[in-house]
């Protein structure tokens, strides 16, 4: 762990507070994401109590971008919508004061044309950038270290660059890995330990986390509270993974159990909500 | 329940008759639907014994639209195909006498450009329009009450407008909700009680129902029988949900169990087919 | 079984060898496939230890096509990318010496425009063509016998035409059916018995097999070894299906169990790796 970092897990009261707000407010969360991860992302959001809609039907990006409580833009969504759709959505969000998450999937895999689109999106003012080590490093201006959608870089390498990115772009940067690091534009640094290796063999698990982070933004209007809210979502994700792994027979039953657990995590007490 | 409405559940012999026909004939059912719901929709159709194909590859809409036993057009499919693809499919269907289902997903969410496409599709002569309360009300000319893909209107508000829509467009209108209402162009009104709340937290469950309604149309050539066949599919869906909910640990295991149960529902006796 | 055919199942040491190589090398496997099958395909590849990426984001086909260890092109991917994307990917693959799999989904269903694209792809030099009986027969120049994405032809009809195809195009042809036939350009003929009927009621199960075959190519550099490697993947798939079927309650729990089993199949001993 890094010197000034503060550790935070699901036992932190902020996790229950965020979950309670999501379940009470059922925020409309709009996503431009990829078809590989879309169904899991929607199911994760529904399990947490949010109301997701996904995709760039005619008029949706500009319309839902401004109507939603928050939006998330998953760069791999470019396999099924255009860069213009994404720009339309984030501009509508910005105009309406709707916070949004940018997930720079596969950034830094050596595809210049693709990376340039993400770099342009990152200039539009996301509230949160969420990715793995390679993606965050690439977006911070580092070398290309991704292999397809996977990282080959370590969290230790990514954190200092993520801190620069957070400060330079005045954005919360969340880096997923064996432990997750949530970095504030003001230098705050939260670390979320735990989670489970099985999350890395379920396609779209990271993408779905981006959607859930958007749900947290939707119920957290004050900017200073958002760093903790983003960390809370990561802690909730980690705990749900740990619980689901206990009874999983492999990655597919783990994914099923993970969504089931998310639906049962309690917002009112300190138990894990599993009977 | 409404005055002239007749209640119908899975114990009605029409449910077994429709299921038996689908399993015997294995109708080719072609769908233009969205990538969030596509896999579940295909799996639901396969579980019921139908032979689905999904999507607008070059030549498929005009080709499969006329070859299939029935087709379903899910408006949110506009996230991955064009309005022209949908028009090609329904015109080919019409030319070949193939019945089709229109599912006006997210109609009435305030996106004029999108709603206009659905209104145009509704003018092409669907056999069935299937949606939630907000969607049916919007298509009937009512106010916009949808929030993304979710309804904020009640069934009670939607039924009278659905009845007008059925009469004016000479179409069967099926409204999904805590109880489902199936409305005929001739004023017939069937109500399907039951189902389970968990269906609302599985993404694409409503969309998949649209595909299954198409399968019912494919095996029900006579128009007067179709109202009952559509209600039968809703009753089958409701019963499968009730059975699956008994052993579900949450929404994801519910979805798994739901498809398993659909595959086991018997067409030959009055048991629920579960050993 | 055919005269010169050699039977091969998961007990053959080649199966463990291929699985061990995939788990050790974790090859980057890039796919252009359809959104119905995409998530299952990615999960199957992850379960086997490979590193998949899917879809045609800007720059990906030409970039990932050359970077990957192998690629697979599923013709039904034309529902969400262009023929040009597919050509870009396979040309990049060819230029870099990356082997690729062509899966001619729905070939021979009577859609001339669509079939012509697949025929053009088949001329670009795939290492393997993998499909069902109708698809292989259509690609070999036979009559159209597919119904949507389903075959209506028998393996017995398809094998002689597949053998011609293998010889004429100097390609390995793998035909899936009640037993799978793997046909070499040199006349070798392997038969993989077993598997399970439930594989045919899980959408995308055949498509995912195409991705797994690509993973096998990625870890099998020598052409003469590839025929056995392709058969090994089919044998692994069949065994995983048989094991998963034992405890499945229907097609959805079967699909979950199938991916779980794939993740547990051992590469080091002759047991089936299930505790």
UniProtKB/TrEMBL annotation, chains A, B, C:
This is Hydroxyethylthiazole kinase. Its cofactor is Mg(2+). It is an enzyme of class 2 (transferase). Catalyzes the phosphorylation of the hydroxyl group of 4-methyl-5-beta-hydroxyethylthiazole (THZ). ATP binds at residues 130, 176. Pathway: Cofactor biosynthesis; thiamine diphosphate biosynthesis; 4-methyl-5-(2-phosphoethyl)-thiazole from 5-(2-hydroxyethyl)-4-methylthiazole: step 1/1. It comes from the Bacteria. Transmembrane segments: none annotated. It catalyses: 5-(2-hydroxyethyl)-4-methylthiazole + ATP = 4-methyl-5-(2-phosphooxyethyl)-thiazole + ADP + H(+). Its EC number is 2.7.1.50. InterPro entries: Hyethyz_kinase, Ribokinase-like. Substrate binds at residue 204. SUPFAM superfamilies: Ribokinase-like. GO terms for molecular function: ATP binding; hydroxyethylthiazole kinase activity; magnesium ion binding. One of its GO terms (biological process) is thiamine diphosphate biosynthetic process. HAMAP family: Thz_kinase. The lineage of its organism: Bacteria, Pseudomonadati, Pseudomonadota, Alphaproteobacteria, Acetobacterales. It comes from Komagataeibacter intermedius AF2.
């Amino acid at each position: 762990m890094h010197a000034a970092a503060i550790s935070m897990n699901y036992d932190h009261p902020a996790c229950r507070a965020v979950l309670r707000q999501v379940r009470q407010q059922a925020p409309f969360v709009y996503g431009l994401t990829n078809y590989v991860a879309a169904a899991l992302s929607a199911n994760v959001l529904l399990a947490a109590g949010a109301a997701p809609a996904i995709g760039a039907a005619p008029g949706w990006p500009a319309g839902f971008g401004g109507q939603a409580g928050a939006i998330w833009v998953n760069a791999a969504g470019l396999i099924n919508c255009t860069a213009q759709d994404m720009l339309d959505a984030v501009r509508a969000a910005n105009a309406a004061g709707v916070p949004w998450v940018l997930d720079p999937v596969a950034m830094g895999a050596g595809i210049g044309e693709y990376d340039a689109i993400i770099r342009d999106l990152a200039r539009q003012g996301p509230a949160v950038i969420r990715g793995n080590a390679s993606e965050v490093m690439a977006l911070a201006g580092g070398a290309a270290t991704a292999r397809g959608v996977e990282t080959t870089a370590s969290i230790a390498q990514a954190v200092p660059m993520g801190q620069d990115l957070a400060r330079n772009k005045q954005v919360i940067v969340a880096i997923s890995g064996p432990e997750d690091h949530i970095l504030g534009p003001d230098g705050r640094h939260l670390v979320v330990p735990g989670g489970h290796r099985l999350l890395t063999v379920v396609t779209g698990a990271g993408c779905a986390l981006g959607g859930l982070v958007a749900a947290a933004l939707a119920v957290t209007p004050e900017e200073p509270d958002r760093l903790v809210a983003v960390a809370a979502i990561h802690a909730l994700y980690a705990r749900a993974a740990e619980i689901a792994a206990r009874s999983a027979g492999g990655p597919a039953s783990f994914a099923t159990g993970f969504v089931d657990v998310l639906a049962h995590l309690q917002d009112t007490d300190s138990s894990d909500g599993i009977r």
